[in-house]
Amino acid sequence: MNSSSETSQIEGQAVNLKVKQYFKAVAHARYVIRRVLRIVDEQAKKESLEPLEHQALIQVCGPQNGPVMITELANRLDIVPAFASRLVRDLEEKDLVSRRRSEYDKRVTLVAITTQGTEVLSRINERVRLHVDVFKDELSDEERSDAFSVFAFYVGMPQGIQDLGEDL
Predict the structure, then answer these.
(1) Which of 69-83, 125-139, 140-154 has the lowest average pLDDT?
(2) Alpha-carbon distance 88 to 81, whole Å?
(3) Rounded Cα distance, 7 and 66, in Å
(4) CB of 165 closer than 8 Å to CB of 22
(5) What is the pTM of this model?
(6) Residue in 51, 69, 64, 44 with CA at minimum distance from that of residue 121
(7) What is the pLDDT of residues 107-137, one digit of tens each?
């Protein structure tokens, strides 16, 4: 083998190793996501909520100050507005949310969480925390580190965390 061919082979092995390390980290991250989402979904079902109803309730309660528009809820759930409206109707029938027309634009429907909705979310969250605490103890430091690195890659890198995908 000549020197050039050996160098190419070594470089190829190094790239393959980086790719393998990257996908190993992605596998750990996907495992963590799936396990945690399964825990959350199971706890939501104990409150008679389907997983998407639970996610809708979180989005109604969560990121904004005050009611959320149906169109924004649909956007945050990555579903069409008609389906978001149906989810809201189902949650309203369970007294978990209330909806009303906007005072400024009667075409816009605003959705707010009720006291009962907040209580349901709190109960789910308490049980999720218990189960996730057990799950976290099962993770190795390597799995935890890999998952953090991949999440950071997906959402942007905070300083001090290595970007696993930058050399691919």
Answers:
(1) 140-154
(2) 10
(3) 61
(4) yes
(5) 0.79
(6) 44
(7) 899 999 999 999 999 999 999 999 999 999 9
CA atoms within 13 A on the CB side of 109: 17
Return the H-helix or E-strand segment holding 136. Answer: helix 115-138
Name the packing angle between helices 70-77 and 51-61 (round to 10°). 120
The two three-digit tokens of residue 94, written as one number: 């369970």
Q: Cβ distance 114 to 97 under 8 Å?
A: yes
Q: What is the DSSP string of 34-77?
A: HHHHHHHHHHHHTTT--HHHHHHHHHHHSSSSS-EEHHHHHHHH
Place of tokens 């956007």: 75
Q: How many residues does the chain have?
A: 168
| Domains of the chain (ranges, CATH numbers) | 3-155 (1.10.10.10)
Which H, E and C letters describe 29-44, residue by residue?
Answer: HHHHHHHHHHHHHHHH
